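# step 3/5: fold
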Amino acid sequence: MDFDDYKLIYSEVMMYYQIIEKDLKLIYSYIHIGDPVENYDRIKNKTLGQMIIDLKKLDNEDGKPDISLSDYNFLHQISKNRNMWAHSNFIDFMYEENPFESIAYLKQCKRLQKDHDRLQSVYKNLETLRINICSS
């Protein structure tokens, strides 16, 4: 993968993280008792990790969660991955002698593509859930 493709895929990964975070906030706002707009205003500044914890607690209150335990575990993992992509992604290979030919870059390319594909799937599933919850 050349660096231009890397940057494009990286930007899509970050876009997916942002959309997933927003969808979780909207889902939370609509399943919480009360006005969804007011609910959203109360949680709009929470991080992705905080939202996953809060939504899991709320979603499981009735014993019939909309999101499975394994999906919540996966969401926790992507929250940790987001921090890596946001804070150390380029550092992992840019200080190599030939950064775009290095083993570190090739490893990062594979990881980026894998995370991109996984996030794309999560994004689509959460979007469907958000649409169903917010339109009912």
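# step 4/5: annotate
Residues 16 and 119 are 6 Å apart (CA to CA).
# step 5/5: archive (pending)
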